[in-house]
Amino acid sequence: MGSEVVVVHAREEPPDAWSAAVFLAGPTPRTPDVPSWRPEAVGELRARWRHPGRLVVFVPEHRHDRYEDYTDQVEWEERCLHLSDEVLFYVPRDLKTMPAFTTNVEWGMWHDSGRVVFGAPPDAPKNSYLRHYADKYGVPTAGDLPGTVAAALERIGAGAPRSGGECAVPLLVWRTEPFQRWYGAQRAAGNTLCGARVVWRHGDHWALRVRMHVAAEDRIKDNEIVLSRPDVGVVALYRRGATLDDTTVVLVREFRGPAATPDGFVHELPGGSARGPRAADPRAMAAAELAEETGLVLDAARLRPHGERQLTATLSAHRAHLFSAEITEPELARLRAAAGPHGVAADGERTHIEITTFGALLRDGSADWSTLGMLTQALVDD
């Protein structure tokens, strides 16, 4: 497949497949005698797009004339903004001919989305506020149109072929391993993604509202939310007792915003996620998280694997990799003597060690069902 650039003007239907999509956001001339900056932007995109596949460029100007129906225009722009992999903001503001009032609003809606670039001539007035938030959120910036186009295409790279409802998943989500694993499972089940919209994103955490055709039921299921974050490595530490109820178990207590427990803390197995090379080895990741959250350093070889599963399959696509280790009496004594706090303070993490028995944990209601389930799996497998 060769390179192709398809321009979609205001109120025109997007194609049903592409490798990348860019929306040209910025001021539109108010009168026909004022030239638009967008034809030059399209020319730059045509000249620079050399990857196999189709690049779609959304131009919020009518192909032949100014749009007539304001409501239809706004709805088209909203739809295509959400379809775009990158929203290219170029703001050659002129207070008389292109004041860019609507651009200010759009920038406020998209500046922290993780898929915008910002450009403006150095002498364009009233852009300081926009530049401030570009700097604050690490948005790529440029002082001219070619540089702005280059910044957008650098983030897009070669894009990724998508069709149908897949086109609604922007590259910053599409390229993540959790999305590909979730989507791969859905396709293996025969289900089809009919549409999607990013409703939230923070770093490598994201939430999609998805519309799926459920093959087994031959129906469309709408407004499902798929939440994801990097996978976690979790360790169940225990010391066998005379009975399962008497078995000593180790948890950590940590403040988490969603907790609805009497003390406002979660009571869970030590564990967490990682970035970079450590994330590729769940056992090493679990051992490192155990050390951070409890101070107990164990050789990763001591951690026995129990597999991986979703934690909350009705909401979250990420998985927990469960490991366990039976600890010695001296190790248990060290944990009792160093209850905390532990954790990575720079990340706002503060954990305290809690030592109890499996029976007491079943009865006191402090741990959630996921924690109880993982702990039960580890102890049953022992």
TrEMBL record:
Record-annotated membrane-spanning stretches: none
Pfam family, one: Nuc_deoxyri_tr2
SUPFAM superfamilies named among the record's database cross-references: Nudix
Name of the protein in question: NUDIX hydrolase
Species per Swiss-Prot/TrEMBL record: Actinomadura miaoliensis
